[in-house]
Amino acid sequence: MNSIDRLLRPSLRGRRPYGAPQLDVSVRLNTNENSYPLPQPVADAVVRAVAEAVPHLNRYPDRDAVELRTELADYLGHDLTIDQVWAANGSNEILQQLLQAFGGPGRVALGFTPSYSMHPILAAATGTDWRDGGRDEDFTVTAEHVVAQIERHKPDVVFLCSPNNPTGTALDPAVVTAAVEHGDALVVVDEAYAEFARAGTVGALELLPGRLRLVVTRTMSKAFGLAGARLGYLAADPQVVDAVQLVRLPYHLSTLTQVTAVAALRHRKALLANVTVIRHERDRLVRELSDLGLLVAPSDANFVLFGGLADSAAVWQSLVDRGVLIRDVGIDGWLRVTAGTPGENDAFLSALATVLKSA
Ligand code: PMP
């Protein structure tokens, strides 16, 4: 074997890196980003904050990101305090730190796929054994199912995702509490899309008090429209926050990231104003995709999974050929589209209608 594979950890051999195609097309609705650029006043505030910070880049950043964590705790509400909040470069890094601290060789992580594809990838990268509990045909998971899978696999870490990527479905809080109450795992609820949930959907932050083994992860990449800044965070018991300090790299969060996120959080009203528009557009996509005769998973997120396609790979390619990039998430017959601006969604819907007619 004349390749570097020989030296690679056996569990990584033959694997492919995570990566949605980044194609140069006019309508990009494939990575659940926020299609709206930062409003100018917010962009100006970020630029001012960065300009003030730049002369001091000779110094390392605040290792504990105190100002940022204070702002994040304030944003989350629920009486959370800085010692219950931790931040990193995207929620991907948060998830990685959790697995570094609570997973690892000889340990088991349980998830319920189809779900966020980075969960098993991060498990592999941290040497954590991955088990898949699966989902019902309609992509839901019940408390009974989760408990049965926990009893079967005896995980050290359980990944729940609500609203779930790629299906869009939010979890009943009873599923989260059942997961915490059965077994002895750290239960991580990945809430990257929480802000897009429909009215009446209850998130996991409310469940935190008194639950030492519950962690909620969030991100500024989606609702805040700051995917390029890379800022994710968690809320949990202070002991969990202390535990991730054991694995985080010193000064992992650059000064520029910290000041950008703080400025954005201080302008959150303006930044989050687009969430309402995106929710409406998401509901419109659900309606119009149903009107096209397709199967549509109910969505609490900024994307919609739709199915009933005879050849989903061919539909995906035909859309790319028409300048519209959406996501083939590897579920046969289904594709996922991000809710973009009204214009982007119109372009997608009309391209899809044409493609389906000619199929
Ligand atoms: N969790 C879920 C469910 C996601 O879909 C994503 C992004 N696609 C992430 C976490 C990671 O986001 P980020 O690292 O940008 O915070």
UniProtKB/TrEMBL annotation:
<dbReference type="InterPro" id="IPR015421">
    <property type="entry name" value="PyrdxlP-dep_Trfase_major"/>
</dbReference>
<dbReference type="GO" id="GO:0000105">
    <property type="term" value="P:L-histidine biosynthetic process"/>
</dbReference>
<feature type="domain" description="Aminotransferase class I/classII large">
    <location>
        <begin position="27"/>
        <end position="352"/>
    </location>
</feature>
<dbReference type="GO" id="GO:0004400">
    <property type="term" value="F:histidinol-phosphate transaminase activity"/>
</dbReference>
<dbReference type="InterPro" id="IPR015424">
    <property type="entry name" value="PyrdxlP-dep_Trfase"/>
</dbReference>
<keyword id="KW-0663">Pyridoxal phosphate</keyword>
<keyword id="KW-0808">Transferase</keyword>
<dbReference type="InterPro" id="IPR015422">
    <property type="entry name" value="PyrdxlP-dep_Trfase_small"/>
</dbReference>
<keyword id="KW-0032">Aminotransferase</keyword>
<dbReference type="Pfam" id="PF00155">
    <property type="entry name" value="Aminotran_1_2"/>
</dbReference>
<comment type="similarity">
    <text>Belongs to the class-II pyridoxal-phosphate-dependent aminotransferase family. Histidinol-phosphate aminotransferase subfamily.</text>
</comment>
<keyword id="KW-0028">Amino-acid biosynthesis</keyword>
<keyword id="KW-0368">Histidine biosynthesis</keyword>
<dbReference type="InterPro" id="IPR004839">
    <property type="entry name" value="Aminotransferase_I/II_large"/>
</dbReference>
<dbReference type="InterPro" id="IPR005861">
    <property type="entry name" value="HisP_aminotrans"/>
</dbReference>
<feature type="modified residue" description="N6-(pyridoxal phosphate)lysine">
    <location>
        <position position="222"/>
    </location>
</feature>
<comment type="subunit">
    <text>Homodimer.</text>
</comment>
<protein>
    <recommendedName>
        <fullName>Histidinol-phosphate aminotransferase</fullName>
        <ecNumber>2.6.1.9</ecNumber>
    </recommendedName>
</protein>
<dbReference type="GO" id="GO:0030170">
    <property type="term" value="F:pyridoxal phosphate binding"/>
</dbReference>
<comment type="pathway">
    <text>Amino-acid biosynthesis; L-histidine biosynthesis; L-histidine from 5-phospho-alpha-D-ribose 1-diphosphate: step 7/9.</text>
</comment>
<dbReference type="InterPro" id="IPR001917">
    <property type="entry name" value="Aminotrans_II_pyridoxalP_BS"/>
</dbReference>
